[in-house]
Write a structure and sequence with these properties.
Blueprint (H helix, E strand, L loop, with lengths): L1 E9 L7 E5 L10 E2 L2 E3 L6 H13 L2 E14 L3 E14 L9 E5 L13 H9 L3 E4 L8 H13 L3 E6 L5 H13 L3 E6 L11 E4 L1 H6 L9 E6 L2 H9 L4 E4 L15 H11 L4 E4 L7 H6 L4 E4 L5
Parallel strand pairs: 1-6, 8-9, 8-15, 9-10, 10-11, 11-12, 12-13, 13-14, 14-15
Antiparallel strand pairs: 1-4, 2-3, 2-7, 5-6
Length: 307
Amino acid sequence: METIKAVVGILKAKDGKFLITKRRPGKFMSGYWELPGGKINIGESPEDAIKRELNEELGIMVSNTNFVRSAIHQYPDRCIDLQYFFIENYKGNPNGIEGQTLGWTKINELTNYKLLPSVKDLLVSLSLPSIYWITPESEHYSEQWMKKFDEKIEQGVKLIQLRAKNKIDDIFIKNLYTKCNRNKAKLLLNTVNKTFKEEYADGWHLTTKELLSFNRLPNNEKIIAASTHNLTEVFLAKKLDIDFVVLSPIKATKTHPEATPLGWGYAKKVVDEITTPVYLLGGMNAKDLNRAIKIGSQGVAGVSSLL
């Protein structure tokens, strides 16, 4: 089977929109939308290839690039070995030099396009932080609980899961959301009374039981994440087009001593199998963050100290 080495460029505008292009008729996967890029020539470095490709395709002169990640995508008749670059600085206005259609889109608008596999996952990944903090699941109205929440906001946490096994008051949720919004943090609800219609939330987090109960997700433009514990559940989340998953437990924990740790090797296996962003949970701390990112995960999640 043929293996094709290629590069991909990620251009982001000041309004948060990403540039995507539509593959022309007659090309492999024609009609699909993708990120701009192309094949690496023999003897050409990936950095030189992305600069050349974006000049030929878009008419721009790229000065600085930042390597994001590599990924291999298997098709029935070929294997595509991709290297992704964030394009930090360029001159000129992107145009469809080769006759391709261009589009600028936000993350929540990606469902409007027929995308190549993994494009949505990659762009969602770029919009997510490396730390996902989960609130304590009880005593939400206590002074101690709120103090912990405020501390995390002040520390710069940008993605928070409000976890609760009891019904939470809407006004309380609104106040938390207001604090998050003021500090450019996102709040996901993992509450027993979530309706997927809450106005004061950036999205929802599904328990594993909820994940297994869905044949299709509620129709909305907000984030939906899910808890998983094995590759089967991860594949289900991928099939449902979940935005990101949390995989646990990676290491042994005091809160769930009966749970068998999955281990770092299994975590890497999961990350290698899918392009959906994966947070690792279970015994994680700040020291584990670099290791988690090195194996290709989005980062770490946890209730205790992560910073």
